[in-house]
Amino acid sequence: MVDVVMPNNNALVEAVLAQLKPEFSAARLGFAQAFVGLFFRRVPDEDMVGRELADWTGLARDALDFLQVRAGDHALVRVYNPNRAEHGWESSHTVVQVLTDDMPFLVDSVTIAISACDNFVHSVVHPVVQVDRDAGGHVLGMHEESAAGGRGKAESFMHFEIDRRADPEEMARLAAAVQHALADVRACVRDWASMRAKMHEIAEDLASRPLPIDAAARVELQEFLRWAANDHFTFLGYREYTTVHQGSEDVLLAVDGSGLGILRGQEARPRSLKSLAARDVPDSEGGKVVIITKTNARSNVHRPGYMDYIGILRFDGNGKPVAEERFLGLFTSSAYTARPWDIPLVRKKYESVMHDSGLKSAGHSGKALRHILETMPRDEMLQAATAEIFDTAMSVLALQERARTRLFLRRDIYGRFYSCLVFLPRDRFTQAVRERIEILMRDALEGERVDSTVHVGDESLARLHLTIRPKAGARVDVDITALEARIAQIVRNWYDELRDVLVAKHGEERGLKLATRYGKALPMGYIESSSTEWAAADVEICAALKNSEDLRLALYRAPGDSVRLRLKLFRFGAPIALSEALPMMENMGLHVLSEHPFEMQLGAGSRIFIQDFEVQPQTGIVVDPERVHDSFQAAFERTWRGEVENDGFNRLILSAQMNWRQVAMLRGYCKYLLQTGVPFSQTYMEEALNRYPQIAQQLAELFEAKFNPARSEHAVKLDIAAKALKPMLDGVASLDDDRILRSFITVIHATLRTNYYQLKHDKPRDYLCFKFDPAKIPELPKPRPYREIFVYSARVEGVHLRFGPVARGGLRWSDRREDFRTEVLGLVKAQMVKNTVIVPVGAKGGFFVKKPPLGGDRDAQLAEGVACYRIFINALLDITDNFVDDKLVHPQLVVRHDADDPYLVVAADKGTATFSDIANSISLEHGFWLGDAFASGGSVGYDHKGMGITAKGAWESVKRHFRSLGRDSQSQDFSCVGVGDMSGDVFGNGMLLSEHIRLFAAFDHRHIFLDPSPDAAMSFKERSRLFRVPRSSWDDYDKTLISSGGGVFPRSAKTIAITPQVCAALGIIDGTESMTPNELMIAILKAPVDLLWNGGIGTYVKSAAETHADCGDRANNAIRVNGGDLRAKIVGEGGNLGMTQRGRIEAALNGVLLNTDFIDNSAGVDTSDHEVNIKILLNDIVARGAMTTTARNELLAGMTAEVGGLVLRDNYLQNQAISVMERMSVSRLGSKQHFIRTLESKGLLDRQLEFLPSDAEFSERKARGLGLTRPELSVLLSYSKIVLFNQLLESDVPEDPFLSAELVRYFPKPLQERFANEMQGHRLKREIIATAVTNSIVNRMGATFVMRMQEDTGESPAEIAKAYAIARELLDSRAIWAAIEALDGKVHGDAQIDAMLQVWHLIRNLTRWLLNLSGGRLVIADAVARFGDGFKELRDGLGAVFADTDRQLAHQLRERWIKDGFDTALAERLSGLPALASGLDVVEVALERKLPLKQVAKVYFNLGEALHLKWLMQKIDELPVEGRWHAHARGVSRDELFSQQRLLAAQVLERGDGKSDGAALVDAWIKRDDAPLKFTLAMFADMRAQVNMDYPTVSVAVRRLAQLVQAGARS
Length: 1611
Fold this sequence. Notes:
- The protein is built from 61 helices and 42 strands.
- The longest helix is centred in the first third of the chain and has 38 residues, at about 170-205.
- Strands 7, 8, 9, 10, 11, 12 and 13 form a seven-stranded antiparallel beta sheet that branches. Strands 22-25-26-27-29-28-32 form a seven-stranded mixed beta sheet, with helices on both faces. Strands 1, 2, 3, 4, 5 and 6 form a six-stranded antiparallel beta sheet that branches.
- Helix 49 packs antiparallel against helix 50 (about 1390-1410).
- It is about 50% helix and about 15% strand.
């Protein structure tokens, strides 16, 4: 465990002392306390972090050991690498420790010594300790400095940690250097007072010395020395020199004993007097007497610069210099910041320059000159002669008017160095310029070292001050003019050349603007790597940038390189991140070799970034930059903006020389193919196209030949393009590549329309859509839609599938990126069957948001979803035909390869519940003929949630199921569990549809609700409250109202406590104390309750034979159960896809009552359809000015309740139809099987797709006495409607005058009353009538009725529909149905179904009779007129015409209905229905014979009794049906029996006198002596004695009856 010390000094001190205490004596511990406290108070916080306590303790112990002995004034220095074994601590650095007497300059000087040895100092700790030592230097006491009672003297302990050094010699040299520096410091400090006193002494002595200067200059010199001594000069050394004649020259000789500081000691070598600069000093004030310059040696005390040199000369009486008093040191910072007029000597130079300039000090130029002198380097002012300063200052002043480059060069008085002042325009000064000038001057002056300082102020000029020391022995010959010119070239060459290029190209005004704003902003790195020609082009690109969203690029061949290219990116504000740029370039076929980024500062925070990439085309790609530049730029820019996807398709820009739109087209087709389930990945398809770029080009040509509106003869050109592809495909080696390329050809050929060529504001749309004929795409999964539109963009992808020209369905916001088409296809299958109740056939759409805001909140996510939805809707309308002024108009710039197609209607769905207004606004923007009828459910429409219509529709199924159990869900309490919460539409509304719901449990995606023993009334009230709370959850439920043992629990909980009450309510094993949320939700789904109500999203029930993967809902895999495990009696499917179809069937086979989701929740789509069709009607009226929009909206709102009633009526009837079919399912199982086979043979049904039984399964069910389940019957019901609708739509049924009433009946009564005439012009009149007739027939007669009628009679569906309508009117069946339905909840549901079957049988017989009539096609009105009165008379007077047997049977039936709870009137009417099967025979005979109906009826019924024909009919009905032909034979026998009875009745009547009672006529006829009659009676008597009758026997009987008729006719 590492004990890391935190930055707390006091805590560290205590910790270290605690470590040392056990091993130190009391005395030494006292020393340690003083030292450790001082030491660690000097350790910076940042240096304390990360070092172990043991190391700090070891360092302190090691340092104390180092301090123990120091003799005399000797400084202790050690350089070492600490290690634990030897020193008790360790460090990654080399350590330098110094112990010496405390004095100034120590740390600075030691640091200089360390740095001079090329070391970097990482940390310094410098405590000053007061140490008392004995004579031997041993420590006697140690205290803080100036501590009370402390003895001894102050000693400095310095601890440096530097770069790690391992070489002992190197470490020894470092120690020696430190010792040398310490010696110099000691010498300086020791003699500092003496040196300062010496300067004061000289200053005073100057008053009496012979000097070659005037009195004023003498005084000025004195003042200067006093000024320097007064803390403006740090004294490092002093020595006196005298002149001595040796040999042939005079020399300087150091005066023994005169040295102080670092100059203390003997100077052995005499120096030539020529070194005395006085011989070359100009004749000026003070300059003859004092020398101010720099030494050749750097200081190793205090500051590391070259030392300043002040030399005062002594003169003899002849004015000859005979001695020098020399001071070495450093001018202090206060000296360098003092103003020139405040420094003696310098102020005289300043005054002289100002005076000689002739400028007024208060004037502009005078002030400027004053500023120049004030900012001139102090070394120059101190060292240079007045004349030199004047010349320089005046020249610089001249530069103020025209900024340019100037060089001023001054040679040191000793010739040791050159001082160079370089002035240059400030905007040209850069570090690179500085470095280049330094190099130039160093080389020109043969310099060994260059020191430089920079002054850049507010002036237009920058100043570079160089001090250059030539190499020893160098002979310098300087051409200042040439140097100045070369400096000017450095300063101006590149920018000036760029300016010249820009001016030449754009003219002076624009060229200068570009050069000033953009050229000057180009950084040095760019300049060094670019020519001015390229820079000019780049400047033009930079100038074209508009804002931070803009991007420009340049692609060109690298100079002198035939392979590599250069790609430059230009952008405001920030560069493109490499993580973005590199993948884009790689995907566009370029390998990035290097990047050179540059930043241009334009001022005011504005920046342009240039990224210069060196790139190389990928293998196989040959690039002509000039040819592809524009297309490459457009593609790259749009990819960066996110308008084009960044993938391998973009390589086609270079490899196939395609533009981004052509590539987007191929990418769009690829995305569509991926959605259809092709076995290839996108990457694989990209590679295939890139392997064959010429084929990719030809695919684009194929597309353009078909759809480019600028071309003509599209079919011819399409054929040419297709033929050109064939030889290319022959050269494709790989089978996979061939399949991929051919799949692109297939989808292009299957495309009917596209918006590819449409423009908006003269620009192509940023999305594509393709309209397909799915029949031309063989590999599409079934079922294949009638038409399909695929929408593609970088932001969104979507698909719209429809199964007919007039289709509707919702558009959902899908979350399935990879297979949203599969999701939509699954939904549209349900939509197809759901839409059978409405006018349009099934359609469905879905879109996927590809770029949701990362980390975005709900509003940001919604905003992107809306934007993508808008793209999707616009794309659909882009290629849809329109009506303008009642004329069909085709979309602009769209080449159509299909018929007129103006009908497009959408609706809300998952994720788009509030988007209808958006869709309608887009519809209005397009001027689409449907207007706001385009999308139902908007703000001016029917609010499904507000109406609760979806839930109410599904509740009709629930009520039907309860009635079949003999219970009433609206008056009796029942138990329930559910999926959803009260904020949801379907669940929330559903749980308020009965006040008798006892909701035991429910769950949604957030919570689990448990109420094991709820009070129905109280819980209903709380659910009602919760429903009204916006965005409520189960957690908002009043917990005090939950029964004992219940609660609300988050699904995120680890476990949930299970109470005994919950166990009992949900059928959980007794003793269970806890469950995970998933286990509990499974238990809820399996609960033994009356109703499982699904109002949620997801698939929760499957079959045992299915896997979770088959369900396509991964989110609910953990809680999904099998249908066979459901223990609920009833399932209400308010939500979509709550169960798989196989799961439903499995549940139904296990006794659960349920339909399908498309049956239960069809009310929503039905409501939307009514809304759309009502709006179509009213919008035409508004367009004609007969109604205002406001009035239309008020009328719509006022019809809400009635529209809801019409919709729920459809739900009611569909449930009733399924129940009737279910009742006959076992007995008519063969008929259902035959129906399925027939549809299969015509390609109208896929048995496996709909999970209908195979023939083998049909046989098994028949053997087990099982029929089809309600979910299976639901499918057959819907498919029968789909088939019949199309058959009727293609017939004359919609034009039948009688059936036009169905059109009126479709609409609410306010519209019927006001706009019945206008309804005849409704654009969907035919569809509405066909739908209404289809629903009427199938809802009342079942799925197989029309097919059976077709096969039995050979008539068309249109004729069958007319015959059915006639039969319905004659019977007045609507009144009977209404009376039966009025008994809901009053009688058992099974009894109601029995009554419905009575009507069903009669209508079937009447329809057959009508279809068997000769005389051509039926006319409904004529038939009703012909038979109506007679049939009504018959049905109202049956009791008076019955034979005794008929009367007895009717009485028995009447009693049965009354016993079941039917009222007397209805029971009376139902009891007579069986007899009316032959009613039309009776009426027909009466009409033909012109006889009273009553007489004819009596004859007919009594004749049947006399010949036992009712017995024979009963035997015919009892015949077993083993197949289609058995059924046909039975029907023919029945028809024949009715026909013969009618003919016999006519013969009996013909024999009568027209006045006799019908019974008497029959009695007389039967008693006559007639051999054929006797033979017939005998045969029938013998047959009645048989136990069983078969088809041959029945056939003989019916034939015998026909022979009797023939015999009667002959007689």
